[in-house]
Every structure is written in structure tokens, then in C-alpha cells.
């Protein structure tokens, strides 16, 4: 079944594509924010390729994320994640949805900020928890109190995610609405860029 797509003004899509140029549009944020789901829709709307760094890691390693954590530990996973994202950022444009920890890596964050356009999908703890508690595919949440773990990650990471170029509130509105808001936020940067010389 095809999902209804809100009609985005052509001009807005053109502006967003112009702002992006050959850069990657990089979604960052906590687990459950919707980076994978919204990123895919944004790529469709902008008619550019989509890649999810977790899927790319799973493809190259031929292992699932939980298997990678189990077999090699988080440090190895992070090293692979950084390498995969560095490679993906060399070419574009595309939408790149990252895993929630990727932007916490200093080198990855510096590369994303220098060569990509980053969007923080920001969500409240309750929204995130409702979503992530439906699946057990996230190794970091295999703790005695996963909601508390998520809350601690939120506290640690939100000041860092705030370095992203753009922030979009993720909530329980239709995914297409959130995707359209992300595109509108990027399109607005086109206006800012054009206004800049006369200021
Ligand atoms: N706006 C939304 N409304 C309802 N469900 C959503 C929304 N955004 C994401 N989801 C769902 O929440 C879950 C987590 O989304 P996902 O894209 O995997 O997040 P992330 O990649 O940030 O961890 C998925 O089941 C996804 O379909
Ligand atoms: O926040 C994190 O450190 C992680 C988030 C996950 O991706 P999502 O944010 O897409 O769930 C995945 O990369 C891994 O389980 C670690
Ligand atoms: Mg994801």
C-alpha cells in the first residue's frame, strides 16, 4: 500500500536540493527518534538516494547490529560505524540516517559538520520509549532498567545533538508530516543564504 504523501511545494523541494548541493543530508538523534523511517521518506521526497549507516554496517559485516555488539563489543562497532560513515560522506547528495551514537564520535561529528548538512530529530523521552520498547533490536537498551538507560543517554547526548545544523521535533504526527517539516527547515536555509550578502 502506498502511503499518502502531503504535496510539498515544488519550490520548497528545489530550495532544499539547492541548499544540499552535493552534500549528504545527515539525520542524527536518539534511538527511536525516527531517523531511519523519516530519512527514507525525505530521500523519496527529494528524489535522492537513501542509506542508513546501520544497514550499511550490517551489509558490509554480514552481521546484525546485535550480533556485532555480541561478538566484538561496542568499541569495535563504533570503529566500524565511523569508517562506514566517513566513506559515505565522501559522495553525495544522499540522505544518510545514522545510528544514535554516531554523532557522539568527535571525528564523525566534525566530518558531518564540515561536509554534510545535519538534522537533529529531537523527541521526548516518552515518545522514544514507546517506540523503542516495541523491539529488542538495540543492544544498548538490554539493561535492568532500559527506560532509565534511555533517559541517561538523552541527558548525555542532547547537548551534542544540538550542534546539528537544524533541529526538527519528532512526535507522533504522521511520518510524512515530520519529513515535510525537515525539508521545509532545510529549504529555509536557502532564503537565509541568499539574504546573507545584503546584511
Ligand atoms: N512520526 C512517527 N509516527 C509513528 N511512528 C513513528 C514515527 N517516526 C518513527 N516511527 C516509528 O518508530 C520506530 C523507530 O523509528 P526509527 O526510524 O527506527 O528510529 P531511529 O532510526 O531514530 O532509531 C519505528 O517503528 C518507526 O516506524
Ligand atoms: O544510540 C546508539 O548508540 C545506537 C543506536 C542504534 O541506531 P538507531 O538510533 O537507528 O536505533 C544502533 O546504531 C545501535 O544500536 C547503537
Ligand atoms: Mg535507525
Characterization of this structure:
- Helices cover 56% and strands 12% of the residues.
- The N and C termini lie far apart (48 Å).
- The chain is built from eight helices and five strands, in the order H-E-H-E-H-H-E-H-E-H-H-E-H.
- The protein has helices spanning 10-20, 35-46, 53-61, 65-88, 106-115, 125-132, 146-161, 175-195, and strands at residues 24-28, 50-52, 94-97, 116-122, 166-169.
- It has a five-stranded parallel β-sheet.
- It is of the alpha/beta class.
- The structure holds adenosine-5'-diphosphate, shikimate-3-phosphate and magnesium ion (MG).
- Residues 35-36, 52, 54, 97 line the site of magnesium ion.
Q: Supply the number of structural domains.
A: 1
Spatially, the strands of the biggest sheet line up as 2-3-1-4-5
The largest β sheet comes out as: 5 strands, parallel
CATH class: Alpha Beta
Hetero compounds: adenosine-5'-diphosphate, shikimate-3-phosphate, magnesium ion
CATH architecture: 3-Layer(aba) Sandwich
Q: How many helices?
A: 8
| Radius of gyration based on Cα positions | 17 Å
Beta-strand content estimate: 5-15%
Amino acid at each position: 500500500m502506498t502511503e499518502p504523501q502531503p504535496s510539498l511545494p515544488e519550490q520548497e523541494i528545489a530550495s532544499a536540493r539547492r541548499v544540499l548541493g552535493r552534500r549528504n543530508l545527515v539525520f542524527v538523534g536518539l534511538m527511536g527518534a525516527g531517523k531511519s523511517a523519516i530519512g527514507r521518506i525525505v530521500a523519496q521526497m527529494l528524489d535522492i538516494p537513501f542509506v542508513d549507516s546501520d544497514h550499511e554496517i550490517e551489509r558490509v559485516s554480514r552481521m546484525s547490529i546485535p550480533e556485532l555488539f555480541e561478538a566484538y563489543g561496542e568499541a569495535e562497532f563504533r570503529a566500524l560505524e565511523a569508517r562506514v560513515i566517513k566513506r559515505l560522506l565522501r559522495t553525495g547528495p544522499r540522505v544518510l540516517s545514522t545510528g544514535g551514537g554516531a554523532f557522539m564520535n568527535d571525528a564523525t561529528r566534525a566530518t558531518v559538520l564540515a561536509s554534510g548538512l545535519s538534522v537533529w530529530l529531537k523527541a521526548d523521552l516518552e515518545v522514544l520509549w514507546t517506540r523503542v520498547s516495541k523491539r529488542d533490536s538495540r543492544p544498548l537498551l538490554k539493561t535492568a532498567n532500559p527506560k532509565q538507560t534511555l533517559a541517561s543517554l538523552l541527558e548525555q547526548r542532547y547537548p551534542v545533538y544540538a550542534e546539528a545544523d537544524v533541529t526538527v521535533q519528532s512526535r507522533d504526527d504522521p511520518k510524512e508530516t515530520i519529513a515535510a517539516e525537515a525539508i521545509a527547515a532545510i529549504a529555509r536555509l536557502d532564503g537565509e543564504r541568499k539574504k546573507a550578502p545584503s546584511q
